[in-house]
Structure prediction request, 144 residues.
Amino acid sequence: MYKSASFCGLIMRLNRRGESLVELVVAMALFAIVVPSLYFALESAMHLNLFSDTDSEATYLAQAELENIDALSPYNTMNDVFVTTLTYSDTCDTGISYCKTVNDVIYEVETSTLNTSALVDSILLHVTHKDVTVSLQLYVNFGE
Prediction:
């Protein structure tokens, strides 16, 4: 009997402050709905942010490598640029022209000569960094 009296006292105190048990239950139910949805929204935003950072890093690495290729190309042959200077392997298993791995970053280059009046080569560079692959293309004229 003492316990029910204390429970009734709690209800009475809640009623005096303008809160009822129904309002308290509704507030707890809303809290139980809102908090998990906020958690999933924040988790999704963090995952998207991580992917965006990795994609930006891969794009930066690909762009830097293409700038190196472009800077070396007028003065060197294609083989000198890739194998000698940039230390690519020309024996790739996948049919790619040149490949190398540096610090867990995979660089793969596909080359093709375009049929134009000038000897212009198409360089397609694939950079894979932390399971994100970025592909950039460059048209270049190698020196002979």
